[in-house]
Structure prediction request, 222 residues.
Amino acid sequence: MAEAPQQELDPSELGTQDYWDKTYSLEIDNFKHHGDVGEVWFGEDSALRIVRWLSSRPELVNENDKIIDLGCGNGMMLVELHDEGFTNLTGVDYSQNAIDLASQVLKDKNLTDITLETFDILADDVSRFRSNFRIAHDKGTYDAISLNPDNPKEKREKYIENVKELLLPEGILIITSCNWTEEELLGHFKTDFDLIHTIPTPSFKFAGQTGNLISSMVFKKR
Ligand SMILES: C[S@@+](CC[C@H](N)C(=O)[O-])C[C@H]1O[C@@H](n2cnc3c(N)ncnc32)[C@H](O)[C@@H]1O
Prediction:
């Protein structure tokens, strides 16, 4: 029997750069006036779960390995990674306002050795990062890309191709999503990546069924 066509998400403004530029412009103001770093997607616990999992896997990553945070937003994941002892960190985001906010947050915390770059994972030339990173981290960015009103399937596929390109052979992608289930993420990534771990996330029970609000999965580049 033929496979059912892949379902896409309903488009949303969260899939547009305009939305993120405006959001981070407001968050820069909040940070300036109230010292508030802004939203940490899926909460601090989810970031800590990932960082702790990573630091308990010396066979996968050591503290000097290069790590990139894709769609780093306010940079707080980079702060958590740095606090856990990881030293070779890069954050990229296509919103210049996100990078401005992240650089203010990092400066405020005296973290001067983290690289930040305005970079569109889909549109900019990824070849200069070719086979560069041991770990790529994504919390909410693949979700945002999937919500783009214009050709989301093509964009998701381009994302997967580009992440594969910037990772070293057998490099690791850690991805956290609230829009896709574990099964769906596996379906999207399985051609280029092997699933090596699912980081446990809080579950809820509804109508006798247990489900997860977010999925946090670890893939190894094939
Ligand atoms: C849901 S937010 C998550 C932010 C951050 N990772 C966190 O966990 O708090 C999605 C982020 O992805 C960024 N983003 C979306 N599409 C992108 C693209 N094509 N290239 C780079 N960044 C992108 C947005 O600007 C935004 O910062």
Notes: The first strand starts at residue 66 and ends at 70. Residues 17-34 form the longest helix (18 residues).
